[in-house]
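Sample entry (201 residues):
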Amino acid sequence: MNSLSTVDWKGDAEVIYNPVGSEFMFSEHEFNSNIPRILHFNITPNKNLIATIHALKGLRCKLRIIGRPTEEQFALLAQNEIDYSWAENLTSDEIVEEYNLCDMLCFPSTFEGFGMPIVEAQTTGRAVLTSARPPMTEVAGQGACLVNPEDISSVRRGIERIVSDSVYREEIIASGLENAKRFLSSAIAAQYAQIYHGIVR
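Predicted structure, serialized as tokens:
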């Protein structure tokens, strides 16, 4: 499903995002700073799993990968001695549970049409690391640690900061929860209503 709609009226185009699913809700969670569970969505090249693997080398964590890694990625996980697990073909309920169980989302994507995992993680109340490039910056607002997805050291520093700096971590989680309100179905419906009212005037 596309994550945005384009409404053309009065010769202007206005982008309206699709709402975050109602199944995603805030979930209380105590961050495990000793061995954080880091969630990474998808294994396609733009999702940048290889950079995540390199960035995690030597760090105590559990990497949870959604999608079956490629043979190259499996080999790299073993080479870097990453503690990981993976899953695929998850139901909606199972995806929600992955957010509930994780400590943070690692989403250093090199290219996205939108980046809905950012909003889903923020809505759940999880720390988010993502790329300092659009559209991730626009989607995340102030509620994420922004890194250079093509610089492994930048990704690593971001992960380490979220894990070690509890004040910073709580700040981006709180900002993420506030930012995610933009994507609630009620907020999106209000945007459509505003446009429709403008059309019929």
